[in-house]
């Protein structure tokens, strides 16, 4: 009697292929590097940020920086995530860097964004991996039932088409996973080294009550040392424009954080729903009543990725506010510190 393929076998096999580097070519780290300073494996965010001051972008003038824009993120898109009812996608607003802070801090913000993009690319591949295994199992079982005259050729053809579609998504996601690592490598000025493993960092959390825009703007004018440097280089009219841009950036970040708080509630609710659905699917799967466990796992993985994206965008928004107000970018808001004590 034909035996159906076991879900755990499929998943474990794919995981094994990932581990040995057959699936992910980025696990091979180049030995070529100009200064022979190797990246640690796994790579943590603090180490990644430490490379910011060495990047050639930090030695450009503002005009040169504008002429050579950084790579866009492939997954985050925090501005679009927040203001999703706008008709125009503004790539500049999706870029974490700002010319209103010193160049090394600008680069730290770009590294932070690239680091999170890699983590999201990994999460994306997990969901597609599970989806591909699930569609393969459905197609494989359908072929067996076709041999038993239980399924038509049309049903089998449709299931194969579904599997091939997800398979294409898988290889696309695999390529994107390597691409995000290449962008991170460029951002930390180690283009020949693609980090295989990244350590998820401790994220910034928003306080229950966001600070007032006017307080943040006043703090930026007082503590942002880069503004003093700009005043020495530019005339009064140019500085007026810089300060107008500063006001706008702070306002947008405060508004972004207020919307992301709602987005976080939605993501948490969706993930909780998917967790419950997965538990039910597992029970029914064990009783051989239902064979859609893989679909439930896929939806759970996608929900978790949405939650991660929101949390990463919250951390980036705070990092930008910290930079504009003269603080280290990963400084936790004071009220949030008190809540966790």
List the helices and strands and how they pair.
Elements: H1 7-19, H2 45-50, H3 62-67, H4 78-82, H5 103-147, H6 153-187, H7 213-223, H8 225-233, H9 236-286, H10 293-324, H11 334-339
Helix pairs in contact: 1-5, 5-6, 5-10, 7-9, 9-10
What is the CATH superfamily classification? Outer membrane efflux proteins (OEP)
Task: Please give the number of β-strands.
Answer: 0
Number of domains: 1
Reading off the top of the CATH hierarchy, the class is best stated as: Mainly Alpha
Classify the fold: give the CATH topology: Outer membrane efflux proteins (OEP)
Low-confidence stretches: 1-35
Which class of secondary structure composition applies to the elements?
mainly alpha
Write out key terms for the chains shown:
341 residues, 11 helices, mainly alpha
Describe the structure in your own words:
This protein is mainly alpha-helical. The chain has one domain (7-19, 95-339): Outer membrane efflux proteins (OEP) (Up-down Bundle). It contains 11 helices and no strands. The protein has helices at 7-19, 45-50, 62-67, 78-82, 103-147, 153-187, 213-223, 225-233, 236-286, 293-324, 334-339. Helix 5 packs antiparallel against helix 6. The longest helix has 51 residues, at 236-286. The relative contact order is 0.15.
Briefly characterize the structure.
64% of the residues lie in helices and 0% in strands. The protein has 341 residues and is mostly helical.
